[in-house]
Specification:
Helix content is 51%, strand content 0%. It is mainly alpha-helical and 168 residues long. The longest helix has 34 residues, at 85-118.
């Protein structure tokens, strides 16, 4: 728990500079809501555009700036306490090699565990997942594989006979 809070707190800028840390303005920043020329110019026909469409509610301008979530900020924050070249090398190796390697290993373990746990799903299942799977295969006009009843040992024996001709 302490490692996660240390990593998170290291990436927070305590005193951001509005000139440096805010995103640059874009074309969408300068757009104004549509306002009709005069209220009398809008006709009251059934085909007319409602005034709520022509005069949308203006957006609130008091939203805080988005936080900077880039990797560079946390890396530079962790380099601030470095006192030697060895400390800089350790921080760089940790942030660029060790932590991505650990993240990749954990993600691979999660995906492998999910595949192992999900391996038992059958097309003939009566659960919601089986129904969704059959529906998806029917939508795509895929042929649903037929499961032959029998034990696993029978299937292995059939495979052995088909592939190797039953020779010992």
């Amino acid at each position: 728990m302490n490692i996660a809070s240390a990593i998170q707190s290291a990436s927070i800028k305590r005193h951001p500079s509005p000139h440096h840390d805010l995103n640059p303005s874009t074309a969408a920043s300068s757009k104004q809501p549509v306002e009709p020329a005069s209220p009398t110019s809008v006709s009251s026909d059934a085909n007319s555009i409602p005034e709520s469409t022509l005069k949308p509610t203006p957006r609130r301008a008091n939203l805080p700036p988005l936080p900077d979530m880039r990797f560079e900020q946390s890396y530079l924050a962790s380099l601030q306490g470095a006192e030697s070249y060895w400390t800089i090398a350790w921080i760089t190796g940790r942030d660029h090699v060790i932590l991505p390697l650990v993240q990749g290993m954990l993600w691979t373990l999660v995906l492998s565990g999910w595949r192992y746990w999900n391996r038992g799903a059958q097309f003939q299942g009566a659960s919601l997942g089986g129904k969704v799977r059959r529906w998806w295969w029917n939508v795509n006009d895929w042929e649903i594989p037929e499961e032959t009843p029998g034990k696993l040992s029978d299937k292995v024996g059939e495979f052995y006979t088909a592939q190797l001709g039953g020779h010992d």
